[in-house]
Amino acid sequence: MIGYVTLGTNDMARAAGFYDILMKEFGCKRAWETERFIAWSANEQGQLLLVIKPYNGEPATVGNGTMVAFAASSKAQVEAVHACALALGGTDEGAVGPRGDNFYAGYFRDLDGHKLAVYFMG
């Protein structure tokens, strides 16, 4: 399955501040960092989320139709993560709530405009 996801940024410090706090909601911390990227993970062998300066040196842009979804452990965690993202300056892209049978989700954009979701199945 997915090993890691990268999200481009034009402001590493701002993105780092957003994700340092948001990733704590999942028990993740910085796994490693270089001048070009910062990676968060729950453990050394786990999946990674990275914010990165594009390799080609061009400005980072948002993918139209691209979305990254974070799996939550409960509906309460969906609500907490969504609220955290908005409190950090993210924008709402869909309020938390049921989306069909057994799917509970909320949608938001990070400070660079990337669309993200947090969801719980059950």
Structural commentary:
The protein is α/β, with parallel strands linked by helices. It has one domain (4-121): 2,3-Dihydroxybiphenyl 1,2-Dioxygenase, domain 1 (Roll). 21% of the residues lie in helices and 39% in strands. The protein is built from two helices and eight strands. The strands form two sheets. A four-stranded mixed β-sheet has the order 1-4-3-2, covered by helices on one side. The model has no long low-confidence stretch (mean pLDDT 96).
Key terms:
single chain; 122 residues; alpha/beta; 2,3-Dihydroxybiphenyl 1,2-Dioxygenase, domain 1; four-stranded mixed beta sheet; 21% helix; globular
The low-pLDDT segments are none
Characterize the main sheet: 4 strands, mixed
Helix content: 10-25%
CATH topology (fold) name: 2,3-Dihydroxybiphenyl 1,2-Dioxygenase, domain 1
- The average pLDDT value, as a whole number, equals 96
CATH architecture: Roll
In short:
With 122 residues, the protein is α/β, with parallel strands linked by helices. It contains 2 helices and 8 strands.
Fold topology:
Blueprint: E1 4-8, H1 12-24, E2 29-33, E3 37-41, E4 48-52, E5 67-71, H2 75-87, E6 91-98, E7 103-109, E8 115-121
Parallel strand pairs: 1-4, 5-8
Antiparallel strand pairs: 2-3, 3-4, 6-7, 7-8
